[in-house]
Amino acid sequence: MSARFIGFRWMPGEAKAERRARAMAARLPEKQWRAVLNRRGVLFLLHRPSELDAIILPHEFGFVSGPLFDRETSAPVNSFRGHDAETLAVDGGAALIGRYWGAYCAILHNRGYDFLHVLRDPAGGAPLYAHVGGDVSCVFSDTEDFIAIWDEPLACDESMVRAYLVQPRLVTRRTGVAGVTEVLAGERLTWGRTSFERTLAWRPGIGPLDNMTDLDAGVRTLRARVESSALAWSGWSRRRGGVVGHRLSGGLDSSLVLAALAAAPDRGEIVCFNEFPEDAPEGDERAQAREVAARHGCELVEVQARPEDVDYAAILTAPLPARPTHSEFSCASMVLSDAIAERNVSLVSSGQGGDQVLHRSRSLLAAVDAARDGLAPGAWLGIACDAARLARTPIWSVCGALVRHGLLRKPIDAFNPVFAQATLATPDACACARQEWKEHPWAEIVARSTPARAARLIHLADLAYYHQPSALSRQFTIAPVLASQPVVEAVLSIPPYRMTPGGVERGLARAAFADVLPANVRTRSLKGDTTRFHARVLERQAPLLRQVLLDGLLVKRRLVDRTRLEAALARAAMADGAVKGALMSAFMAEAWLYRFERALEARCAHLACDGGHSA
Predict the structure, then answer these.
(1) Terminus-to-terminus CA distance in the chain, angstroms?
(2) Strand, coil or helix: what is 405?
(3) Would you call 96 helix, strand, or coil by DSSP?
(4) Which of 276, 330, 264, 172 shows the shortest CA–CA distance to 481?
(5) Mean pLDDT within 139-163
(6) Rg (CA), the chain
(7) Which residues contact 374 (CB under 8 A, 6 or more apart)?
(8) Which residues contact 254 (CB under 8 A, 6 or more apart)?
(9) pLDDT in tens, 34-71
(10) Shortest CA distance to 365 belongs to which of 482, 253, 457?
(11) 503 in helix, strand or coil?
């Protein structure tokens, strides 16, 4: 559960802008909000229930919202002295990135030069958005708070919705609200008296920064970083006096995270939760989960997922996020959330992010990087054989990859064609999505990187998906153990071809935790298959999809082709995986638009009663 805050920036001395900002702030219920930064040109308010999750800096230098840990000791940070707080404000948060890490946003006010810095942590663990205006700008963590009080007209960014329909995991600054942007992982916004700047305060390392070419060194470093991340989150939970709830699928990633949590001294209580699908044995991983939980002395709660417990209509009344997101499908069933809540859980962990961070890939690109790094012929041949084994292709296929990405320097395409196989969107949707990828702040770094490193950066950018709102994140604090800054930085220091020794995906991670994982988990490469289960869910929800989509807002706004939509909603067509994916994207976009329009209607009514000057 992320802390809620909202704030305003205007030019100091501009009385009209100040009156406007303070009038909007006054619309927030006074008993629920407290001003924590109130100076010339700056006003920030914190939701009172979120005060426990924020570090208020002394002398109105600002605040840090969300869990923060000391990089050297992994201990939670609860306060800053005056001098240290001033350092953070003066250097724009550089000291935060260098000496600390966590799932945080920092609002820092350099009083001497009147700079306001807004920083999101390099792993992107806490939500942060901004509306940069002419006279008044607004920074916030919750979209509904912003919509409720903003006094200018708001509209849907239809281009972004089009892009979402063909790339639902698109990583972009743009949101579904025109003029509102997301501050991406590691980004910093800076307002001066008359200036505004958007920069990267943290940049992912590229080729020349790789310093860990020795396999044993990589094994030691990866394990140490994962365990230090788990230690930090475990300490945070102990201070809150609650239980760590760990989502244990029985796969590699969730199992090694549990091993790291269990290794923490004075770890406190850890309760594992395994969600298994009804009547779908191919997706049932309870046997592996039981073995892993027993090995570490943890209780395992088994939660059955049944199609009849899933109701997509619940998404239509869920809180409004900044953009459509597949993560909200979790709101269709509260069975897992309710099971976790029953156990006094204060923190929820999982193996999420393992695919991206630990290199779950079957690509030949690692061999191309090894060649471009100038490895000796014998060493390169071994890596080429590993890459071919990993990709399950003849060794000669490596030569094709070398020509394409080595000799011809063909760039890596971030656009995922899988999601566009059965698109219901208008023809310009793919062009919109491709343009958004090109404007990502890491795009230039990706373009300069070797192929496997470029692909890794694209995968790491995808970690943003796990920080989108979900049923769990709205109720609990989420611990992204694998997707933390120290682990990401460790992985970036290791050449991609060292992540898959022996041609085994996530091979380095398997070696790093070999002594604490059951053999059948350590050697697994397949995940549980829930295709049949979700097909049954979709069959039950089909009437709702037809009702909502055929005469819905996407059709009225001409964001989807109604003829294609009708064909896709036919019973036979819905059995196709690509069509199913397109319908899921369309439903989530429709659900977002529906709630957005309801939020605008509520705002109009509120502003009319309040005497607001625009709707």
Answers:
(1) 30
(2) helix
(3) helix
(4) 264
(5) 96
(6) 24
(7) none
(8) 246, 247, 248, 350, 351, 354
(9) 999 999 999 999 999 988 899 999 999 999 999 999 99
(10) 457
(11) helix
- Angle between helix axes 252-262 and 215-240 (nearest 10 degrees) is 60
Please give the C-alpha separations between residue 424 and each of 153, 167, 473, in angstroms, as whole numbers: 29, 12, 30
Q: Which two tokens stand for residue 404?
A: 């394409």
Please check whether residue 480 is in contact with residue 121, taking contact to mean a CB–CB distance below 8 angstroms: no
Amino acid identity, residue 239? R
The three-state DSSP-derived secondary structure of 549-581 is HCCCHHHHCCCECHHHHHHHCCCCHHHCHHHHH
Structure tokens, 122: 């390099």
Residue type at 57 in one-letter notation: L
141-155, 204-218, 301-315, 352-366: the lowest-pLDDT one: 204-218
Tell me the torsion sign for CA atoms 256, 262, 265, 266: positive
**Percent of all residues in the chain with a pLDDT value above 90, rounded to a whole number:** 75
β-pairing verdict for 129-131 and 136-140: antiparallel
Q: What does the block give as tokens for 578? A: 């690509």
Angle at 368 between CA 367 and CA 372, to 5 degrees: 120
CA 426 to chain centre: 27
How many Å apart are CA 580 and CA 533, to the nearest integer? Answer: 13
Instruction: Fill in the DSSP letter of residue 138.
Output: E
By DSSP bridging, strand 243-247 and strand 345-349 are parallel
What sign does the CA torsion over 220, 221, 223, 229 have? positive
